Amino acid sequence: MEKHIWIGPRESDILFSTIEFTSSITWYGNGEHGNSAFIKSNMHTKRYNHAGKDFINYIDENVVKNSNDEYKYMFYNQLQYYLLSTKEQCNAICINSLDILNTIRNKGTMRNFIQDIVPVVPFVSFSSNKLPEFKFNDFNCEKLILQESISSGGNGTHLLCHDECDNYLKNKNSEESYIISPYLNNSIPINVHLVIFDDDCIVLPVSHQIIYNENDFFCFIGSDFLTDFSDKIYDDILVNSNKIGNELRKIGYRGVCGIDYLIKNNNIYFLEVNPRFQASTFLLNKHLIEIGIPSIQELNIMAFSHVKKPFNSFSKFEKCKSYFNIIKDESRFIEYAESKNEFQVFLDGYNKSYSVNEDYSYKFRIIMNRNISWVNYDNKLQIEPNILPDSYQWKKKVLRRNILALKISLLNQGVRISDYAIQNMKNKGMIRQGVFQSVDLKFNNGIVINAPYLTDFSVMSPFEIDFNGKNYILKYYNRYLETISFDTLDTNRNKIASNGTMYGNVTFLATDRLRVHHQFRCYFKMHDQGCKFCNVKPKEGNYDLSDVFEIIDFYLNNVDFRHFLIGGGSGKAEIEQNNIMAIASYIRKHTKKPIYAMCLPPENIEVLEEYKKNGINEISFNIEIFNRKIARTTMPGKGKIPLKQYENALKKAVELWGSSGNVRSMLVLGMEPIEDFLDGVEWLSSKGVMPIISIFRPVTNISMREVLPHSNTELYELFKKIIHITSRYNLIPGPPCKQCQNNTLSLPENIISTLDIC
């Protein structure tokens, strides 16, 4: 009986293979149960792509130990077979000729070969240490990608301007070959597995490639099979991959390979062919097994056995998974990832005591049951902010207490809470949960920041709340940032009013305000027209105004807060308006505390005069999504309200309450193209309306769970643009209340003036 031995970078590469491997020889692995792992014998981490001779020597040693005709060696990368001194002893299977491998893995050769078959990324190839003569402007780009013709995994790939290309090449071997391509900014990198048989090839589902870029160094760290593309893209990928696969078949290539593409402006461009298994093969295998299809390793053996392909191509799975490699700042993932059902951790022999010989070295990998990337409304790829390590430049901003960077990070990445801190909270009254499954962190300068801590990704945040025995402290990558505080749980929420209504169904105490719901249920939610980004569940039952008044009385007499907010859900126009006026009137008769109303824009704008007469000091009609086509899709009920209705109500409100920030409207950043969003900021500001900017956050139990937020750096740059717009109209992003800014992209005016955001 044949015994199969796997040779490759990671032991986890074969975890889901339908081929039973007797043993494995890997760079990373546990060194147990038949695995021989280089990392275990050397106790240091290094990028596998730089393994070179060290690993080849290690393979040679183990081949000698396992020299037996029964053993069949399968290589992750076939080229390694040809580098062995023990080739004669190594009974390798599924190996293509060296000439074919060298042809395919040469980027310049392959692009020349493929360019008449499918669209390729523009390129210039050359074989010297001097740039060829060509016009830089011909590529119509700011930077170039300079690549060694034979390279992989980001090695030998550099993002450079024209002069930097010349300098880089000066000290290089003149015998090396290179290609130059334009840097297609905001393009989407994808990968496709092919298995090539004698008669045809099989195209397997496409994945996003998750690329980490720091200081123009590119490092592949994961794949996502879950994010959707347009039907056109899927069709183009399938057609083009079949064409390429059949050309490779004609020159004699068999078995598994991977094709890399770039998507730009809804068009796909060929990059390169990798004549080997892919880093994402293990994840694809997991799903293939689940649907009863042989693994890639088994298909690879079949392709070399001269059988016909066992099934036809397919370009996507309805349900698959994503994964990412940990390359930096790994401790929080070890501590928290295994506690969540969303995660599956594969350590591959990782040991935090090992020395790190090279930056960006692989540590271990994590499978997720949901997407970690998303193609946004601008057709750009967004990566979940906690997947990619924060850059050195961003870390420096946060550690130097740049309040804008700190707020963006906490809004976007959330926070973890240590077990010790949670235990102390239990002893002192627990934490008061804020909106959006979050906690409101109070800083010494009076700033309050609403940080998610119960969402899918917050367990991976680099921020942690800990307790030092005296105070709660905020840490960032395990470094102390600041002492913080937060409000304890509002236990009054559990009280029952005279008619049997729970206080928490009527009011919500957060920061310095008491929110009063003007109705029990959202009308749109109850009629299956709720906003897709809202996680509020439809409620059964009801309450009347007497319940509301009783609960307001209790809070006025027993709890300290600064102002009221009347809002929460949407109602039928007449009912909503009558309730708002009744609640405002009741509050005003019992207190002078400011009243802020957040409601739908009335068709009859004269209602606004009644709102003001009944004591309302501030008002907001939240447009949320300025692009009305997207609004109607995303908000089936509220999105049908015409923009003209908002305009009429806002204009009237400015007449009544002025243009200094008492009239506001919220826009959700991340729910429409950036150009449309900024047009919305301009449109509101020009009318004297203060824009409130809410960052979209993927809370749990929403239908738009696949949508991901913008990166920290994108949000930082967008805030600059927002300020440039609002300042022209003597406004700032709202609301003006420092504590009510907790969950919005805003800061107090006196702090904005100190920021270097020009």
Number of DSSP strand runs: 34
| Total number of helices | 22
Q: What strand line-up does the widest sheet have?
A: 14-13-10-11-12-15-18-16
Radius of gyration over all CA atoms, rounded = 30 Å
Q: Which residue ranges are poorly predicted, with pLDDT under 50 across at least 5 consecutive positions?
A: none
Q: Going by CATH, what is the homologous superfamily of one domain? A: Aldolase class I
- Helical proportion? 25-40%
Strand content: 15-25%
Which CATH top level class of one domain fits?
Alpha Beta
Can you describe what's shown?
This protein is α/β, with parallel strands linked by helices and 758 residues long. Among the domains are: 91 residues; 62 residues, 2-Layer Sandwich (Dna Ligase, domain 1); 93 residues, Hypothetical Protein Aq_1857, Chain: A (Sandwich), CATH 2.60.300; 218 residues, Aldolase class I (TIM Barrel). Helix content is 29%, strand content 23%. It has an eight-stranded antiparallel β-sheet. A seven-stranded mixed β-sheet has the order 28-29-30-31-32-33-34. Helix 12 crosses helix 21 and helix 20 runs parallel beside helix 21. The model has no long low-confidence stretch (mean pLDDT 89).
